[in-house]
Amino acid sequence: MWEPTIEIAAEALGANAIVFQDKSVYRELFNLHSTTEKLSNPTTRKSIVTFIKALNQAEHVFNTDFGSVQSRVATAVKVDPAILKAVYPVHLFNGTLAADTLDVIIEEDQWVAKLENRATISKADLAKLVDRSVLEEALQG
Known about the structure:
mainly alpha
């Protein structure tokens, strides 16, 4: 289960609710995918960088003045504003690339490789999938 379902269930259970949350066991990582071709095209790359800048600006508002967007977000995701306010603190918007992104990809590839009965992909090849340059451009200005 994920939010807002957990909050709705917790409210229904009242004082009997116990929420287990261990970020060392489970966390959500969000990412943006592109292609080498698109990142190599100056016009498209500029659009991607602009998009990331806009995400970071929105993230700043969410982190510093969530009340100003709460109603609009609640409407957009079709969640009661009070429920949204209650679950908001469990979300982390940090506008960066997790330091352990490659480690997570390696671990996930090992799991998928076992399921698919195939060899794992080398760390060097998986590292090519993580491009920090677009984020760095967006954060520069």
